[in-house]
Amino acid sequence: MNEDRFGFSLMRTELAMYEPIKSTDEGDQWREKKDIESASSLQISSHHRPYLPSDKERLVSLDVFRGLTVALMILVDDVGGIFPAINHSPWDGVTLADFVMPFFLFIVGVSLAFAYKNLSCKYAATRKALLRSFKLLSLGLFLQGGFIHGLNNLTYGIDIEKIRVMGILQRIAIAYLVAALCEIWFKGNHNVTSELSMIKKYKFHWVVAFVITTTYLFMLYGLYVPDWEYQISTQDQGSTTFLVKCGVRGNTGPGCNAVGMLDRMLLGIHHLYRKPVYARTKQCSIYSPHNGPLPPGAPSWCQAPFDPEGLLSSLMATVTCLVGLHYGHIITHFKDHKRRLNQWILRSFCLLMLGLALDLFGMHLNKPLYTLSYVCVTAGASGFLFSTIYLMVDVYGYKRASLVLQWMGIHALPIYVLVACNLVFLIIHGFYWKKPTNNLVSFTYFSFVLR
Fold it and tell me: Which residues form the Heparan-alpha-glucosaminide N-acetyltransferase catalytic domain (predicted)?
């Protein structure tokens, strides 16, 4: 599976994250007011389930944002190899592709504010959150664990000793579960009448975010990374062992960081992603920022496995989801468009400035490590983009122009599975004439792409 496919976000209705509810005032649904979330117009499902507004009450801008992110995901994955400016950054720094994952996590957080707004049974909601996380983890293992071998190989199956444990959907499952449990159990009983009262109501959410961030920073900069080694198997020479000399603390380079060390220790080096993004750095490729042969004197870590969706970085990714949850709370507690937009823009600006300041003082933007500066900048960008889409779609009513993106957002999960993960192409590729190369996919490619 291609690592650049970020679909995940995908925690949507297809996995039954949300349950539709009934409005107490059908006449108020999507009228001239265009206000999306009126707390008085919603009531809890009789089945004690978490809910989201029904289709007529959907926050259209959130679907459009999700659809735009899906489209962006497909674009950067298919074209990023040609245009490095939109491909993933080889290490430090961010490009267009590096915003896709945070966008999805932010969207999941916003959605959770609706899903668990009112609960009649916290234990039932917890069970459902655990089940949905397990479903995402299982789907992620199937799609990205190595079971499916890709477009050029019609075989399938994976050695359990080499299956990739973490991945995109697994990261979303972790972030969703942490944010959902916070929303279910760590929500105060305060009546929200102002921004300050909203902060008091959800103060334990910020405590959780602070603890996660502090733990991450302590491990990233405090853990000692010893020397380590890995093997590469070749048909001609058998196995070659490479020694990576570290013996450092607080290093954020590709070979000697604590994020990779923890994954090697806890998951095992054979269960990590085998095509690391840092293989496109200048130290590891003569064609950088593209993949290419190793240059003379290349570091020993250039071919080492490294998982960009590892354990410690996925823990930090939950903070992005919690930020999105906070933006969702602003919708559920405040009805006025101007008030919502002012709060979103202020918070987005503060996050963006904080992230840029951290980068300036040495904590560089880095997606594989999911650094704090990266969290702040991408969360701020998510807030600004969501505010813009909300203003255009839900305030000014430009919904017709965004119907395609809205449809993509509503059907994000099947699009990810069928298109982003190449499953539909694999199925078509499986029907061929006399030999596997004579198939519809190859015919289309050679007829139209290479003409």
Answer: 58-188
